[in-house]
Amino acid sequence: MRAKITYLVTAAVLVFYFVLVGSRGVMLIQTGTLLTVTFGVAVLVLPVIGLWFLWKNTQFVRRANQLAAELEAEGGLPVDELRRTPSGRIDRDSADEVFARRKAETEAAPDDWRSWFRLAVAYHDARDTPRARKAMQRAIALHDGRPVQV
User: Fold this and answer.
1) Closest of 90, 89, 122, 87 to residue 103, by C-alpha
2) Contact 128/141 with Cβ under 8 angstroms?
3) Pair 90, 84: CB distance under 8 Å
4) Within 10 Å of residue 45's Cβ, how many Cβ atoms?
5) What residues contact 124, with CB distance under 8 A and at least 6 apart?
6) Using one digit for the tens of pLDDT, what is the confidence trace for 116-142?
7) In this predicted model, what pLDDT tens digit does every residue of 61-109 receive, in sequence order?
């Protein structure tokens, strides 16, 4: 729940910032000189890109949460079996063991979104965020029946 609140607060701050930057871009355009109009258009591009990125990221998180809920209803969510150090950090050898099992499971069933979801969790536990995101994107695509890019 705390992660959702943090995400919502961050998104709200970003939207406020985009509106603020966008209004400055409009003010520059309204000035009417070639230089200020050029800068105004350039400034307006930033909030557009930011809003697009925020929208895509929100959609990704929403879809991943839907898959997690569906997997939980099936009783297929991965169990946290990782050993931790006294400080609470995940033990690297433990993460590697779980990752090896998840990878083998995914190789045995490459078209099963559930195995890709569990692999994404294993990547996340191993602190490999880019691969975790790619694996989750693949799980979402497989779940939705869309073609998967290799």
Assistant:
1) 122
2) no
3) yes
4) 10
5) 132
6) 999 999 988 888 899 999 999 999 999
7) 999 999 999 999 998 888 787 888 888 888 788 888 888 899 999 999 9
- Closest to 105 measured CA to CA, from 144, 139, 145, 66: 139
* pTM, to two decimals: 0.78
Closest CA to 114 of 78, 60, 62: 78
Query: Which long-range contacts does 137-141 make (Cβ < 8 Å, 24+ apart)?
Result: 137/60, 138/113, 139/64, 139/67, 139/113, 139/114, 140/60, 140/63, 140/64, 140/67, 140/113
Distance of CA 104 to the CA centre of its chain: 24
d(CA 143, CA 67): 8
Residue with tokens 């509106």, as numbered in its chain: 19
In the chain, the amino acid numbered 95 is A
User: Cβ distance 135 to 112 under 8 Å?
Assistant: no
